[in-house]
Amino acid sequence: MHKLKRYERFADDIAELIRTGVLLPNQRVPSVRHASRTYGVSPATVFKAYYLLEDRGLIQARERSGYYVREHAQRPLQQPGIGPRQLHATEVGVSELVFSVLGSLKDPHTVPFGSAFPSPDLFPLGRLARSMGQSLRRLKPFDVIADMTAGNADLRRQIALRYRLSGALLAQEELVITNGALEALNLCLQAVTVPGDLVAIEAPAFYAALQVLERLKLKAVEIPVHPRTGIDLQVLEDSLARLPIKACWLMSSFQNPLGASLSAASGQAVAALLQRYQVPLIEDDVYAELYYGSQPPRPLKYYDQQGLFMHCGSFSKSLAPGYRVGWVAAGRFAEKVSQLKLMTTLSPSVPAQAAIADYLQQGGYDRHLRKLRHQLQAQQAAMLASAARHFPASTKVTQPQGGYFLWFEFPEQVDALKLFRLALAHGISLAPGPIFSATRGFGHCARLNHGHPWGAQSEQAMAVLGQLLQHEASVATTEDAVADVQPSVGA
Amino acid sequence: MHKLKRYERFADDIAELIRTGVLLPNQRVPSVRHASRTYGVSPATVFKAYYLLEDRGLIQARERSGYYVREHAQRPLQQPGIGPRQLHATEVGVSELVFSVLGSLKDPHTVPFGSAFPSPDLFPLGRLARSMGQSLRRLKPFDVIADMTAGNADLRRQIALRYRLSGALLAQEELVITNGALEALNLCLQAVTVPGDLVAIEAPAFYAALQVLERLKLKAVEIPVHPRTGIDLQVLEDSLARLPIKACWLMSSFQNPLGASLSAASGQAVAALLQRYQVPLIEDDVYAELYYGSQPPRPLKYYDQQGLFMHCGSFSKSLAPGYRVGWVAAGRFAEKVSQLKLMTTLSPSVPAQAAIADYLQQGGYDRHLRKLRHQLQAQQAAMLASAARHFPASTKVTQPQGGYFLWFEFPEQVDALKLFRLALAHGISLAPGPIFSATRGFGHCARLNHGHPWGAQSEQAMAVLGQLLQHEASVATTEDAVADVQPSVGA
């Protein structure tokens, strides 16, 4: 969609040097003159690239001395490794745990590290409201009924256009507009399974995927995910070869909760595997627009030659939270998915569809997205730095190149569910590891949300978490940790 | 909600005389002076009552001679009887048939007798758009996320208030806002059943109920419905006594497709039965607001002492089609239903909820409803009169006291599915009987929608249907009926 400018490409190169540790924290980045000469770009391009990197929170200017890598731009904590492989299917029973975590987020005074959403302050709600007004004035009464079945025609056109601009050619008829991506995922899974079937999912996985499996009485075959490179190809292949797997549900980019992304080569390999075994893919790609680099990641759907892959997207995480408008490009399953939708909810809200269609037509979505990505990346840097200051040194943490989640692996003695309860008593929410696992694994892990503007309250909350962690890591058996730490952080 | 005025009570009395045939078509209604003396009401009250009856299409003024019963005010066609009783459970497989009917409604030029919705022109879409604008300006960013789980607080208050005004006291916590009533019905059924369970439903029944049963692999126990008095109490009791029924899904008022309503006594009896056998009720009450009389019908939920009844309502048929906002007062199952919603669609659109809440707070809903009811009643009278003019004399038809459906029982030789195809070739849709039955019964019946303003096109469409019916009734075996009748009606 967004054609890469030269200064953006150059900024990406420098960011990669920082990420991989070639440029270290507090190290001076090449001077403008030096960089211009070395990389063969104009001084203006270097200036613009450095300005962009400063905006992303990776470097900072020091008066009269040039640009330096920020202290927290590079990861001071280690990256976690991959989980154990398990070649068997598991009945799922995680819902109650998830609901207790979700329930903890209702209080607006709780520090929302456990939230699944970025801050609604990051979205153009005013502009959307104007689009709503304009589109409702234009909407003819018959549209209100007609748009219920196929979905708003303008919206479907706009979504198809965005696919086309990103290189994926698909027929508009493949698109089904849904009540958020969550409904799309539910319907896709129902379209290709019956109760008792085996479904390959990631470990750890988005908890809603586990809940859907539980509700539909499907069995999970957990495939380990590497925190940086994504799903384990070898285990996936073994599982497909040895078990009668009926569907595969995965996130190719900024996987929830790990933030892992498949490389282009791995993506192509996964796509080839699924096609070889003729296993339908349900691709949850709700963070697709939240990449920090200058190029969007390529979904597996891109490699779909046979209509076997269902690609689920949403505006909830990138534009319009609460509007509940998502979609699926469902390939050969489009009619089945559409029929299931007619039977269960009939249609997403017509005004919400029309408002988003108008917003997309007016333009400005890509500008909003660029700003949003920079904010999320800067907030990630702030949370990483804060974790390095406060958490035990043996803590491991991911550093995804998109989205708004960090995944922490704490010292083994830490019980994430206990930590969840202790933190909540201090007005801080978090998403404990076990809710992301059919087998209740990841007991010493947690997902923290950095989708909210960073401030003193966030910093203080990290300090409290740090104290709780230090205490738990040293005396994991005592139950009186609550009394030992700072008072609560929530206002 | 609406306290009955004296002239409205008097108008209802006269309407009942017309309905029961005490006053016949073209008969003069009592003069104002006579009525005033006989019934002990003021002349002004009589005047207002007659004006109201004229508005409802039941009587008309003739110059210098007073008011007369309109020709089509009373039913010239017979009422149908009750279907056969079947004390066994049936696997459901009706979906494909339903989708072919639904698909026929997409063309805006088709005469929409087969539609499930009233004309969107009957709704205050402009006023709703203004409420949308106002509520979006008021909405705080955090609300966008908070309103997703519990639902918009103002909306829940307004719905609870309307229950309270109608005499049903319920806790706001019992209310779950859903994507239309259809999602509510789906979730309720899931909350109390597992695949393979038996569910008591009506015969004929709303086709979506059959589709949900099919999708959830539940078995239908069909209880016959009398076209005027509703579900057969004796068969229901026998079924509950002899079969392990896990839930009962029914419509107590203006049942779809028959339009039947339970009397207060029958309603109380059904409620007592379900409570005796401890069978949860899923009460589909989406036409509750569309009553023609002066008093709202009383839902079975009114008699619920144990939180056993789930009462599903919606704004889709009475205020805001396409907004997809419904709800359920789910009694003791509220938490379970709410959790199922979080797992499948998360939430209905927050702006749509806020707009309806604002509209309800502004007032004017009851005024709109009174106007809507009069329109629907007048359109019913027009369709009944037209059917009497054009359809075979042996056709039977219901005359519901609310809603916007008529149920026709044609001569036995008529194949409703063939009629559906023939009519569609002439640009006319209808809902053939078999889509309302798990056992593909009602082969010579159809449901016709009178929810659209009556005009020359409607009249012509009825004439074409009449010709098709006369032809089918006389030579039911020939297949060349299409050529024999008028050209198509659709614009």
Automatic annotation (TrEMBL), chains A, B:
Cited Pfam families: Aminotran_1_2, GntR
GO molecular function, one term: transaminase activity
Keywords of this entry: Aminotransferase, DNA-binding, Pyridoxal phosphate, Transcription, Transcription regulation, Transferase
InterPro entries in the cross-refs: Aminotransferase_I/II_large (IPR004839), HTH_trans_reg/aminotransferase (IPR051446), PyrdxlP-dep_Trfase (IPR015424), PyrdxlP-dep_Trfase_major (IPR015421), PyrdxlP-dep_Trfase_small (IPR015422), Tscrpt_reg_HTH_GntR (IPR000524), WH-like_DNA-bd_sf (IPR036388), WH_DNA-bd_sf (IPR036390)
Domain HTH gntR-type: start-end pairs: 4-72
Assigned protein family: In the C-terminal section; belongs to the class-I pyridoxal-phosphate-dependent aminotransferase family.
PANTHER family assigned to the protein according to its UniProt record, in alphabetical order: HTH-TYPE TRANSCRIPTIONAL REGULATORY PROTEIN GABR, TRANSCRIPTIONAL REGULATORY PROTEIN
This protein's name: PLP-dependent aminotransferase family protein
Species, as recorded: Pseudomonas typographi
